[in-house]
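A quick word before the example. In earlier lectures we treated sequence and structure as two separate objects. From today on, think of them as two lines of the same record. Here is Cysteine desulfurase written that way.
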Amino acid sequence: MAPNQPLTESEVEAIKRDFPILQQEVNGFPLAYLDSGATAERPRQVLKAERRFLEHDNAAVHRGAHTLAALSTDAYEDARTTVAGFIGAASASEVVWTSNATDALNLVAYGIANASRGRGGADAERFRIGPGDEVLVTEAEHHANLVPWQELAALTGATLRWVPVADDGTWTAEDAVALISERTKVVAFAHVSNVTGMVAPVSAVVAAAHAHGALVVLDACQSAPHRPLDVQALDVDFAVFSGHKMLGPNGIGVLWGRHELLDALPPFRTGGSMITTVTMEHTDFMPAPERFEAGTQPVSQAVALAEAVRYLQGIGMERVRAHEEHLARRLLDGLAGIPGIRVVGPPAGVPRSGLVSFDVDGVHAHDVSQYLDAQGIAVRSGHHCAQPLHRRLGLVATSRASTYVYTTDQDVDRFLSAVGEIRGYFGADGVDA
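And the structure line, produced from the sequence above:
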């Protein structure tokens, strides 16, 4: 099978059997889990890897000379190496463990704020921003990639600007590039939108940002789990993603950064394990990645995330992408045939991730979700932590179906059939129910 071919029906069924949670019924129906964009389920291989570590090797890392401490430290750092390889990092030291992607974005934003207050010495001067400088985001960002930059602007006096979205919720490279100037110091945007499924024009934005000396921060939460991610090829400066969206556990995220940038960025969370020397008057911090890993670390979670990475590598990320693009086309084609449905995001024929957000005319998104749940179909409803985007689209909320490696054509077909019934059930189609 070619490495970029969609998964076959039998392959997806075999994958699905690896996920114990997907073998159950919900409300008397087989579970069709279409909420992977929020949290992915975990295969038994990942569950087993974390349990084995906890039962055999668990101890504090980097802190002891006994056998279990050595074993746990090796497992922790081996996991870092595995994740670094998965995203094309130049070295494992470019991978920083965080509690999630939100934490990673705050780490960068508050690190820049600290540098702007004079912390970090001469090496950190490259990060200094202040009045007259600008931070650029897009109107489509998840709150986790918006609020930290709002705070950075408030703390430093810089100006927050944003790339506007069109009526379908997408934005263009041209509109982004037009807003990048010598005043721009940081450009932050999602690789793949968690609402529209749009794949960002990374190369054009990075080229413009770097031409003006700006740093690029990439939110890869919806790309790292679903398509090949090569941070060096993308030429971004920082990238973040979460374990729980890619078959791994909660409580762990990843910050990748260029080594020279991480070593110069002041930490914003301080304490034990990230220091070299402490006196009562002064502290010296370790180089990256340890300088950002204060306190007790999520060791078993790192081990489990590495196992999730190996599971995805066993499938092949090109095939993961092809499978989800196949499902996205099936979703779009099916929803296009249902009256009263408004889909947001790129139109059919434009590459997008395997998620689709939509509005059902006359029916609130929460009612849509509850109707589907009654038939064992799990979707997300709400603003998906993207209120400005929904406000721009004139919507309070949308419903979102998001797929993954274990999503079958049958799952999608059940979803489409149920969506086709919703307006009639709620009397929103003008016909008495």
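Notice the following. The mean pLDDT is 96. We will return to this example when we discuss secondary structure assignment.
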